[in-house]
Amino acid sequence: MPALSVIVPVYNAEAYLRTCVESILDQNWKDLELLLIDDGSTDSSPQICDQFARYDQRVRVIHQTNAGAAAARNHGLDLASGSYITFVDSDDYIDSDMYEKMMSIRLEFQCDLVICDCLKEFDFGAQIYTHTLPGGFYDRSKMKSEYFPQLLMTESIEYPVTISNWLLLVRKDIIQEHHIRYPEGIRFSEDLLFGAEVGYAANSMYYMKGYTPYHYRQNPMSVTHSAYRDKWPMLLDLYQRIKKSFGQKADFDFGPQIDRCLLFFVYLAIGNLGSSGLKSSARKSQIRQILKNSLVHSTLKRIQISKLKISWKLKLITYLYRWKCIPFVELLWWYQNKKI
């Protein structure tokens, strides 16, 4: 049984797949298995996966009908035999010492969860993606006092430290014991719930703040960077699952963070409409539908907007959402697009 299982969901990634897989197989840490979950690719990705399986016995390839990254990752979790689990996206790549260093931290501190940072790579260069949470070792007590207050969503309405699941090294037992899986059918921010549930289930963790062995390509063709007209129903579904999972925890009140999650999803959904290609009348109708949703309405009334750690411009926008000032929201969009 390998010490580490690396799960890679693959969908039409022929331009990047070889670099991705080679970076995993060339790791200094050799005691691993690589699960390539081909999610119904229509390019040459399936053949590339099979070639690697013939070349290296640590590679296992699973071909499935297209069902999305969440389902592909869940399939990988069902088949993984390693003591620890991690993920890589098929258009990214990693430094050769990533798993060696992360497994070394795991062995030294005997922790359930190890987290690192990454480099976001753009055409013009790269930048470090990190978080406000201090680095170092966290036992359960320190997790409750310092990590839990931002486990789901920070006060600045930004993703938490576990959002990038490919930066997590997770003890498989806690995934199995707590039945943690990805929410299938959701194609946006599905890693948020998985990472948060892993973070809550862990009894200890280590954050390797500033260590950036993962190279996250800003691929304009990925789901994350695509405009979808039906993003809001998916985000609302994700919010309901977050509320169900974290709304009744006995040892910590996640209520304010659950509210901030919904606010963040409102930002995402309305912001996405600007690039959806909809006519102004249709866009206004969808904005109105979002802001008149009873969950959104009650959440916006409950949130103390003035105390959020966001810019004054975003606070103004949030007040406009609370007051349902659709024409002013449209005017802001027009102004921002004109500046661009």
Automatic annotation (TrEMBL):
Domain of life: Bacteria
Location of the Glycosyltransferase 2-like domain: 5-139
Keywords: Glycosyltransferase, Transferase
CDD domains the UniProt entry points to: Glyco_tranf_GTA_type
InterPro entries: Glyco_trans_2-like, Nucleotide-diphossugar_trans
Entry annotated with the keyword Transferase: yes
Glycosyltransferase in keyword set: yes
Pfam family, one: Glycos_transf_2
Gene3D superfamilies membership: Spore Coat Polysaccharide Biosynthesis Protein SpsA, Chain A
EC numbers, comma separated: 2.4.-.-
MF terms in GO: glycosyltransferase activity
The name this protein goes by in its record: Glycosyltransferase
